Amino acid sequence: MKKILILGAGMVSRPIVRYLLKIPDFHVTMASRTVSKAEQCIDSHPNGDAISLDCEDDSHLEEIISNADIVVSLLPYTYHPKVAKICIKHKKHMVTTSYVSPEMSNLDSQAKKAGIIILNECGLDPGIDHMSAMRVIHEVEKNGGKIVSFRSSTGALPSHEANTNPFGYKFSWAPRGVLLASRNPSQWLEDGKIVSFKGEQLFENYYLQDVPEIGTFENYPNRNSVPYKDIYGLKDAKTVYRGTFRMTGWCETMRKIVALGWLSDEPVKKFKGKTYADLTRFLIGADTKKDLAKATADFLGLEIYSTVIKRLGWLGLFSGEPLPDNKNNPLDYLNVLTLKKMSLGKDERDMIVMHHEFLCKFKDRSEYITSTLIDYGIPKEDSAVSRTVALPAAIAVKLIIRGKISIKGVHIPVVSDIYEPILNELKEMGIKFKEKKLKIN
User: Fold this and answer.
1) Any idea what the Cα angle at residue 215 is, between residues 212 and 217, rounded to 5°?
2) d(CA 133, CA 423)
3) Cα-Cα-Cα-Cα dihedral of 345, 396, 31, 73, to 10°?
4) Quick one: pLDDT at residue 172?
5) Measured CA angle at 433 (ends 432, 439), to 5 deg
6) Sign of the CA dihedral 7, 179, 101, 150?
7) Of 25, 135, 182, 342, which residue is most buried, by most CB within 10 angstroms?
8) CA dihedral for 34, 155, 313, 294, sign (positive or negative)
């Protein structure tokens, strides 16, 4: 039996466990701080075990890693380098769905020396975005073409019929991660020039984009896109942009939430209030005699009837609801509120929209190529987010165990030996792209 260790039992873990447990000679051990979550995923399968995990207990972590053939870390990204170092020490392969940190990149030579692969960014975004983009990029290059513009955007959204709140968003994964991402600075390459904005300006720089057959979305920049010119080998590209899709209205509302100070993860000094309304009033310095919605509108330079003010009221930022006792900063208070008000229901579907755009030049013509993935969750089973994040990692585990992926070191899935078999199997599962080509001249 091949022994797979999965660290973490979060919102995207179930599909990877169920996939791997279907393989007869695989044994899956799931380690989680909350053992009951792992037990739910294992579901009494004879080839599965659920155990407790304390990420701060280094000796226990080393013990369980040393007994595995491969480790999948679904822990918060800050733990990945610690896990990777133990994997290197005991010569165990490792897979994550998280971005590669500089600390992780620095382990490349050690991983090669140990004869293992540490495969990162093997989820949805990052993950499927890399793989599907590289398949088109390599195909264009193989046919003698050059890519002069590349734009890629992804959204994890409620399906249209489940879009039933004024924010146009429902959480199918950890809300805190979504909120934290709202503070990221952005940078991309546009017509040969680097464009960059500070984190607080993130939501000021969006545009409306029509995605065929699915709708119109707001598109705002996703982190730093500039390195992907080199990562993807786009030596001729003048534009390299990676973005995030949201339903219309999201960006303006989130920009105002940032302006209010609700995304700060620092305790608010001298605040002694008890409710969400108290904190909003304190953050804007409003007099207790003034209507809070009107005071907030004035602070933000909005009309009292604006949709942003209506959304903030619906969410509960003007309400007398008590702040949770076990939190101590605006971001975590907001996290509790959004999870309560904006979670995806068990009977509802989420959807993934991923859309690539390539402007290509050949000797005799130019082409505009689009590649689009639309995938829906399965009500009462797995969300689209959990499937598209977990299944690429699950397939990668199988390929590594079977010796089908043989390269060593720290990698992301941008080489054909990795992305081709993963994309092919995802297609068999119904997770597939629709490609269109338009000849320009």
Assistant:
1) 115
2) 11
3) -90
4) 72
5) 160
6) positive
7) 182
8) positive
Half-sphere exposure of 309 (CA within 13 A, CB side): 16
For residue 219, what are its two tokens? 């598109």
Q: Nearest Cα to 110, choosing from 79, 77, 87, 78? A: 87
Q: CB-based contacts of 71: which residues, under 8 Å, 6+ apart?
A: 4, 5, 6, 7, 65, 83, 87, 92, 93, 94, 95
All structural domains of the chain: 2-119 (3.40.50.720), 128-252+345-385+432-439 (3.30.360.10), 267-328 (no CATH)
Give the amino acid at 66: S
Q: Write down the residue that tokens 């082409």 correspond to.
A: 367
Spatial separation of the C-alpha atoms in residues 365 and 362, rounded to whole Å: 5
- pLDDT for residue 174: 65
- State how far the Cα of 186 lies from the Cα of 189, in Å rounded to an integer: 11
Distance (Å, whole) CA 40 – CA 263:
33
The span from the CA of 411 to the CA of 390, in Å, is 17
Amino acid found at 352: I
CA distance 279 to 335: 14
CA–CA distances in Å: residue 373 to residues 10, 25, 80, 436: 24, 32, 29, 12
pLDDT of residue 167: 96
Q: What are the helix (H) ranges across 43-184?
A: 58-66, 80-90, 102-105, 108-114, 128-142, 175-181
The residue behind tokens 């030049």 is 361
- Please give the structure tokens belonging to residue 148: 């002069």
pLDDT for the residue numbered 422: 98
322: three-class secondary structure by DSSP:
strand
Cα separation, 215 vs 304, in Å, equals 29
User: What residue ranges of the chain have pLDDT lower than 70?
Assistant: 173-174
Q: How far apart are CA 440 and CA 359, in angstroms?
A: 10
CA distance 84 to 76: 13
The residue count for the chain: 441
Q: In which element (H, E) is residue 297 found?
A: helix 292-300
Which of the residues are catalytic?
125
Half-sphere exposure of residue 215, counting CA atoms within 13 Å on the CB side?
A: 18
CA torsion 177-183-185-189 (nearest 10°) is 60
d(CA 283, CA 271): 9
Q: What pLDDT shows up at residue 182? A: 75
